[in-house]
Structures are given as structure tokens and as C-alpha cells.
Write a structure and sequence with these properties.
Elements (H helix, E strand, L loop, with lengths): L1 E2 L2 E8 L4 E9 L9 E7 L4 E11 L5 E12 L6 H33 L20 H45 L2 H6 L2 E11 L9 E9 L2 E11 L7 E10 L5 E9 L41 H11 L27 H9 L17 E3 L11 H17 L5 H4 L12 E3 L2 H10 L4 H5 L8 H4 L4 E3 L11 E3 L6 H6 L8 H14 L12 H4 L6 E3 L4 E3 L6 E8 L1 E10 L3 E12 L8 E7 L2 E8 L7 E9 L2 E14 L5 E14 L5 E8 L12 E8 L3 E2 L12 E8 L4 E12 L13
Pfam family, one: DUF4140
InterPro entries: CHP02231, DUF4139, DUF4140
Protein name: Aspartate ammonia-lyase
Length: 744
């Protein structure tokens, strides 16, 4: 079989799992198209039911007939033992050389360190003072310092070289140890592989064919993140979408075209079959796609196999103890008998038929009548019964029945007449009906396909020895997979099942990987739509179960800065940015890293934004905007007869812009809300607002507040402005609480 190398070209990461595409370049072998090729290096975690292959580029006649999964074992490259031995000897020689030079250097250091000035001994009787040679002493000291510095530097270099040489020796010895065949077997790696069956006509060698292999693997996740860069003025900015990907599929994605999708990988997306409504005579339903009825004459297909196999299974018939008595004359058949003489002749000519005795209470229509025979001698009765039973057994296995065996004795009925009964099901089975009744032969039920019979990947063909199911496809047991069948053909001493178990554990561990802060899984944030995003360039994602952030694309959005103030809650101004999605695809929920100028500001959560939606993104407190809120409350009586209480509220908000740019400020206030059902009695009148305010419309995802009002004002650099509002609450005397607090 031809092994064709392949490389991973594209990967689409779904909400859970990934769809990988490999590209293989096929060249002609001896100017002919190979019947089968094998693509190795597939990960162990792939789902075999998702294997698909197609000819991406090649001659028109080249087609892929079939594809099946299998396993592949890759061993490490062979080690050249003589070369490693020579390398080890060289490393040991280098260690000895460096050690010798290091010893010499250390002895020189000791010798130079012992250098010091000496003076000749003086006799005490003749001692005379003399001048000390300072120049010589200084020269000696300088020489010692210089030599010690040189020798110390040389010693450090030799010690470093000795460590490297010792590490090289350990490396060479480890390689020699790994050159053993037993150790190399333990280091074997098991992969999946795909075998493709091809057909077609040869093509020119100058134009190789490209074959694309597609398969799905679990153990891959992604979540969206964003990067928002704003200037100090918040007037414009850029939003970039990023994909944070983690995978532990068993293969590294190196230089692949990566795409991310919100769709579920295991969801079946098939075109529904709409049933047509017709007026007229009822028609049988059309056959399902991919289903064919069993071919006629399936049993005759194995006639030669059974005829060749029968002599091997036939045992020699034991000789009878005594010759059987002469057959009695057959009784005349009645008109109500269902089995005629022609039927008996057919019964005699069919091999493999069987006769079963029925009780005397069976219907007469299903029994054959025989005249009484003289009773045998008592001494010969057991022998005749044994011979008769043995002859029945051999008849049922090997040859056609004789008339004596068909007309066996049975207990008598009321007329004391022995009878032999023959079930119609046996006769029908002997005639080729498989044990069915005569009525069922005339109208056999039509076999309806089920979903299990359309799952061709899990169907198996029964063996020829299986008389009931041979020649027909049936569902394979769930515990018997193609992988286990392929393992039976492996002739290496590798525990493949342990490799598969480890791979499944690694894939399952990815589900417990904690998500980044503010991240939301795509299936939760995508709501009722699915989208796919293609990365701008090829990327690398190792299989290490770690999060890797990759740039996806620049998102064209509309950005407008606003400052929101709620002075009744907190007298501070909060920076916000209105983000409008101007793309034809949704922006999923995720964290946004906000950079203000050249400084990282904060990370904020961004909700899901369908195309055309607008959301508000908070950016923290702006200290350069000063806010002050002042209130005054007045209580008076009013109404026609002075029985109503008038509660007047005066609110003033002072704003001051200390920024160097023009800003838009939204100031939110709240007026009292009248409970439902009291609108006729309690009145709230907004008497004065300067400048005028309006009811605030919340953005999608924001909680509406009853009675909320908002000022939207523009402040120039250094400008200060005062906002005023007055409203009056009119409460009749019948709705007042005696001694209650009316100011809350």
C-alpha cells in the first residue's frame, strides 16, 4: 500500500471540538493510479465517523471510492550505534583533556599565589639600615595580580568547558541506552490513519493531484475577546476581535488557516424531506435514500458453498440393528387433507426436511392417516425403536425422508388407529419457505429500513456459516468498533488501548479548564444564530491545554463617547462609550481590554451585539468633571377647599468641565412614580426644568427604571452649567397618613 505524506492545512474550531483538513499530494506510481493509499499521522482523538475525503485538484476521472480508518505506529529513527560509540569516546577524551588542563591551571594558581618578596638574612652584630626597593615590590605585586586574574579567568573557562563535556558524555550514554530495541518499542507513537480507495485514469506527472481529508476531533475550545484602543478625547477608536483558543487534540496546529465558529460540531444539519400532498389513489412511499431491498435469490447464492461444505459435516450412518418392516399400504386420502400425493413427492425430493410428531389432539387437516400395523415382538421392540430413532436422526441431517419415516407410528385416537402427524410449517420449510406458513408465502411483508440500517459505518456482513443472516448487512454490536477490528491486524507489541485511554483523558480534561475573566462560551452568547470568523493569517496553536489569544479581524463599529452622571446616587461622572455594530455578523459577549492613549485602562464585559445593535461600555470614573447636587423641599396646602397637600421638590445640579475637549454629558434623575390605580387621586406635575429633560430610553440589556428622566448637555472645555428641575406631588387628604413621614 502506498503511504502518501500529508500536512494539516485548515482548522475550524467550533463551540466544542474542531474540524481539521489535511492536504495530501499524490504522484503517479509507475504511470498508474494506485488502488489504495494511506494517510498517516492523524490524531488518536479523531471521530472515525466524520472521515471524509475529496479530490481538490486533479484529473476529472480521479475519484475516491471508499475510506476506512485504521492505526499507524511510528518508531523513532534508528540510532547508528558505531557512530554513537565513537562520539562517546571523543566526549570522554575531551573530558580527560579538559580535566588535565584544569589541574595544571590550579597548580599554577597555587604557585603564583605563593609569590612574595623575600629579604636576605642580616646578622645582628653587623645590622645596618638599608633602603627598601619599593619599585621592585610594586612590580612583583602587579605581576602577581595580573597572573592571578589571567589564571582565574582560564580556570573559569575550563570549569565551564568541563561541565559541557560531562553533559555531552551523559547525552551520548543516554543515546546508546535508547538504541536498545526494547526501549525503542516503549517510545513508539500510535496514530490514526485513513485508507482511501481510488479509481481513475493516469494523468501527466507534471500536475500532481491534491486530496483533501477532513475529520473532526474533540478537545478544542474558543471564546471571543476584544481589544479597544481609544484616544484621550474618546472621539474615535478601533475595536479588534480576538479568539482565545485552547486545544488538546494530540497534534500541534502549525501554520494552519484557522477559523472559529459558534455552531455545534455534533449537530446534524440535513435538509428536511418535505412530504408532498397529493389527491388521488394512494401510492407507496418512495424508498429512502441509500436503501435497497435484499436481492432475490440470496439463498441460491450459497448453494455451491453448502454443497461443498455438506460432505465435511456428514457423518456415516450407523447400520440398523434389524431390517425395518415392510411399509404398509397407504390409506386413501380424504378431500379435506391439505397435503396431496404431489406434495408428498415434493417433500421426498427436498433434502434437509424434518418430521415432528404432534399430539393426537391436532387438527385432522394437518395429519396423515396410516393403517394399523401388527405389533412387533416384545424382544425386538427396543431395537426397532432405537433403529427407528437413529434413522430419523440421520434422515433429518443428511438425506430425504422415506415413506416409512414419514408415516411414523403415533398414539391412537378414539378409533384406536395409529397416526403420524406432519406440521405444515415443516412442509413449508422443506419447500424453501424458511418455516413460514402457506399464507405468509403468498404475501411476505416488505422490509422497512431503520436508522440503524442506514448507518453504513456500523454495519457488518454476516459470515457464510451464519444460516440466518448470511448475505445481509446487520448492525454491529456497540462494543465492537472498526478500531477494535483494526487492532486485531496489528502485529506490534504496543498497548494501543492505553494510548487511546490517555488520549480520551486528555480530551476530557479540557472541559474543566477555567475560562478567562468575563468570558462566555459561544453557544451561550450566540443565542439563535451561528457565525463563522476567519483569521487574517496562518497561526500556530500547540496542543498544551493552554489559552492562546489570536487576532481575528478589525471590527468596523461606531464609537461615541458619553459621560453618565446619576447625582442622586453618587456625585461622580462615569466615562462610557456607545458601541454600534456595523458589521453583517454578530459580536459575541466577551471581555474587552481598553487602552486609553498609550496606557492600559481596564477590562470590561461586552454583551452580545447582533448586527445594527448598540451597547454602552463603561470605562470608569472621570475625575476632571465636577458634579454637585442641591435639593430643597416645600410643603403647602392646596385644592379648592384646601384639603390637599402640595409637596414641591427643587433639584439643581452643577456641572463643571475641567477637560481640554468638548464632552457630552447625560445627567439622570428620577421623579416619583404614582402606583397603579391611584392616578386619579395622586398627581405629579413637572412644573419647571431648565434645560428641558426627557424620558430616558434604556439600551438593549439595560434595566428600565420607572420615572427616570435625563438631561443631555454639551460642555465646552472649562465651561460650567447648572441644571434645574422642579416637580410637585399633590396628595388629597383622604390619602394622607396621620403622623406619617410624607417626605420620603
Amino acid at each position: 500500500m502506498l503511504v502518501v505524506p500529508s500536512m494539516l492545512d485548515a482548522v475550524t474550531v467550533h463551540a466544542e471540538g474542531a474540524l481539521c483538513t489535511r492536504i495530501a499530494t499524490l504522484q503517479l506510481v509507475e504511470d498508474r493510479v494506485p488502488n489504495e493509499i494511506q494517510l498517516n499521522g492523524l490524531p488518536l482523538s479523531l471521530r472515525t465517523g466524520t472521515l471524509r475525503a475529496a479530490v481538490r485538484q486533479g484529473p476529472p476521472g480521479l475519484t475516491i471510492r471508499a475510506i476506512r480508518p485504521t492505526f499507524d505506529v511510528q518508531l523513532p529513527p534508528e540510532v547508528d550505534v558505531p557512530q554513537e560509540h565513537r562520539a562517546l569516546e571523543e566526549a570522554l577524551s575531551r573530558v580527560s583533556d579538559v580535566t588535565a588542563r584544569l589541574e595544571v591551571t590550579r597548580r599554577e594558581l597555587q604557585a603564583v599565589g605563593k609569590l612574595k618578596p623575600t629579604f636576605p638574612p642580616q646578622k645582628k652584630a653587623r645590622y645596618t639600615p638599608h633602603q627598601t626597593p619599593l619599585a621592585s615590590l610594586l612590580a612583583l605585586t602587579s605581576f602577581v595580580d595580573t597572573e592571578l586574574a589571567t589564571l582565574n579567568a582560564r580556570q573559569l573557562d575550563l570549569e565551564r568547558e568541563l561541565r559541557d563535556a560531562e553533559n555531552d558524555v551523559r547525552l551520548r550514554r543516554q543515546r546508546l541506552h535508547e538504541a536498545s530495541s526494547s526501549v525503542r518499542g516503549e517510545r513508539a507513537r500510535v496514530y490514526r490513519a485513513a485508507v482511501l480507495t481510488l479509481s481513475g485514469n493516469p494523468w501527466p506527472r507534471e500536475t500532481p493531484a491534491l486530496i483533501a481529508l477532513e475529520y473532526a476531533v474533540p478537545g478544542a475550545l474558543w471564546v471571543p475577546t476584544y481589544d479597544l484602543r481609544l484616544p484621550r478625547t474618546l472621539e474615535e477608536g478601533t475595536l479588534r476581535m480576538r479568539a482565545t483558543v485552547s486545544q488538546n487534540t494530540g497534534e500541534d496546529w502549525t501554520g494552519v488557516k484557522l477559523s472559529v465558529s459558534t455552531a455545534a460540531l455534533d449537530r446534524r444539519a440535513e435538509v428536511p424531506e418535505l412530504k408532498a400532498l397529493r389527491i388521488g389513489r394512494r401510492q407507496p412511499p418512495p424508498p429512502r435514500s441509500g436503501w435497497r431491498e435484499p436481492p432475490p435469490g440470496l439463498d441460491e447464492l450459497f448453494a455451491g458453498y453448502d454443497a461443498r461444505r455438506a460432505p465435511a459435516l456428514t457423518k456415516p450412518r450407523p447400520p440398523p440393528m434389524e431390517p425395518p418392516p415392510p411399509p404398509p399400504a397407504p390409506a386413501p386420502y380424504r378431500a379435506d387433507d391439505e397435503i396431496t400425493g404431489s406434495g408428498m413427492e415434493r417433500l421426498r425430493s427436498v433434502p434437509g426436511s424434518a418430521v415432528r410428531s404432534a399430539p393426537s389432539s391436532a387438527p385432522k387437516a394437518k395429519r396423515l392417516m396410516a393403517p394399523s400395523a401388527p405389533p412387533p415382538r416384545p424382544s425386538a421392540a427396543p431395537q426397532q425403536e432405537g433403529a427407528r430413532s437413529r434413522s430419523r436422526g440421520s434422515f433429518a441431517r443428511n438425506q430425504a425422508p422415506t415413506e416409512e419415516e414419514v408415516l411414523a407410528e403415533a398414539p391412537g385416537d378414539d378409533d384406536d388407529m395409529p397416526m403420524a402427524s406432519l406440521d405444515l410449517a415443516d412442509v413449508d420449510g422443506a419447500m424453501g419457505g424458511g418455516g413460514a406458513s402457506v399464507d405468509r408465502l403468498s404475501a411476505a411483508p416488505r422490509l422497512e429500513p431503520s436508522d440503524s440500517l442506514l448507518d453504513y459505518d456500523r454495519l457488518t456482513l454476516a459470515a457464510a456459516d451464519d444460516l440466518e443472516g448470511r448475505g445481509r448487512l446487520r448492525s454491529r454490536p456497540t462494543h465492537v468498533t472498526r478500531e477494535l477490528i483494526a487492532l486485531q491486524a496489528m502485529q506490534i507489541q504496543v498497548n494501543v488501548l492505553s494510548f487511546i485511554a490517555v488520549s480520551e483523558q486528555q480530551v476530557a480534561s479540557l472541559r474543566h479548564l477555567p475560562l478567562p475573566t468575563w468570558s462566555v462560551p459561544p453557544r451561550e452568547s450566540a443565542m439563535h444564530f451561528d457565525a463563522k470568523f476567519d483569521l487574517e493569517s496562518r497561526v500556530d496553536v500547540p496542543s498544551d491545554s493552554a489559552w492562546h489569544t489570536l487576532p481575528v479581524l478589525s471590527v468596523p463599529v461606531g464609537l461615541s463617547a458619553e459621560y453618565v452622571i446619576v447625582p442622586s446616587v453618587e456625585p461622580k461622572a462615569f466615562r462610557t462609550v456607545r458601541v454600534e455594530n456595523r458589521t453583517p455578523y454578530p459580536l459575541l459577549a466577551g471581555p474587552v481590554d481598553v487602552t486609553l492613549g498609550d496606557e492600559f485602562l481596564m477590562t470590561s464585559p461586552l454583551p452580545t451585539m447582533p448586527p445594527g445593535a448598540t451597547q454602552r461600555l463603561g470605562l470608569g470614573v472621570e475625575e476632571s468633571i465636577k458634579v454637585a447636587r442641591n435639593t430643597r423641599f416645600d410643603e403647602a396646602t392646596g385644592g379648592i377647599f384646601g384639603g390637599a397637600t402640595m409637596l414641591t421638590h427643587h433639584v439643581s445640579v452643577e456641572l463643571a468641565n475641567r477637560l481640554a475637549n468638548r464632552i457630552l454629558v447625560e445627567v439622570c434623575e428620577r421623579v416619583p412614580a404614582v402606583p397603579t390605580g391611584y392616578e386619579k387621586d395622586i398627581k405629579v406635575d413637572e412644573t419647571e426644568t431648565a434645560p428641558p429633560w426627557q424620558k430616558r430610553t434604556p439600551l438593549p440589556g439595560e434595566t428600565p427604571v420607572e420615572g427616570e428622566r435625563a438631561w443631555r448637555v454639551v460642555l465646552q472645555p472649562g465651561e460650567a452649567q447648572t441644571l434645574k428641575a422642579t416637580w410637585t406631588v399633590k396628595i388629597p387628604a383622604s390619602k394622607m397618613l396621620g403622623g406619617g413621614n410624607r417626605r420620603t
